[in-house]
Design a protein that fits this description.
six-stranded parallel β-sheet, 10 strands
Length: 228
């Protein structure tokens, strides 16, 4: 009984300090748990994901070799969100977006917000501001490998900024994770593959941008072209 009273007092204090709903029993929170998804447009992939699509309020990573369909998957996801009355933004860090191709897939390019940032910090700051608006269903960033830190862009060719991109990604994802959940926005990154030098056992493949994206991603999709 004393423990229950002590716990009740602690919960009351937390709610007064941080607001109602800042802590609750899981059984009381079911109505607040949003497990809605945005379909990918591919039934087999939706089934493989287990929940019928990409879950809202989460960080997603789509990685794979060149020309494997990573950006195409983003376009399909954006098109599905728009068909359901949602809004999306495409942060084109690679400066390679093809609006004609996106339109053919079903994207309403007239309503799509597009940004072509000058450097990685700008791209991630734009993403953070868009998510904080709470108005978007999807913020797509293409790609992590193209999120080059400002210091590297302004430096000389051959200068090596050790760990700069990894630090940038880690800081940005820490900010984004909680905001995404409250806004119900999907933040989806594409990423390229790199080869780790000197690997004798196991896969030599890795993705750039450090480990933070791997840890923060609720879903990581490895996209490959099928050889025919």
């Amino acid at each position: 009984m004393e423990k229950e009273q002590a716990l009740g007092a602690a919960v009351s204090q937390i709610e007064r300090q941080f607001g109602k709903g800042s802590i609750m029993r899981m059984g009381d929170a079911q109505a607040l748990i949003d497990t809605s998804v945005v379909p990918t447009g591919a039934l087999a992939l939706d089934l493989a994901l287990g929940v019928g699509g990409i879950p809202r309020g989460r960080i997603i990573e789509v990685f794979g070799p060149e020309s494997s369909g990573k950006t195409t998957l983003l376009y399909h996801l954006i098109a599905q969100a728009q068909k359901r009355g949602g809004m999306a933004a495409f942060i084109d860090a690679e400066h390679a977006m093809d609006p004609t191709y996106a339109r053919r897939i079903g994207v309403n390019v007239d309503e799509l917000l597009v940004s072509q940032p000058d450097h990685g910090e700008q791209a991630l700051e734009i993403a953070d501001l868009l998510v904080r608006s709470g108005a978007l269903d999807i913020v797509a960033i293409d790609s992590v490998a193209a999120l080059v830190p400002k210091a590297e862009i302004e430096g000389e060719m051959g200068d090596h900024q050790v760990g700069a991109q990894a630090r940038l990604m880690s800081q940005a994802l820490r900010k984004l994770a909680g905001t995404l959940n409250r806004a119900g926005t999907i933040c989806i990154f594409t990423n390229q593959l790199r080869e780790k030098i000197g690997v004798m056992f196991g896969s030599p493949e890795t993705t750039p941008g450090g480990r933070a994206l791997k840890f923060y991603s609720s879903v990581r999709l490895d996209i490959r072209r099928i050889e025919t």
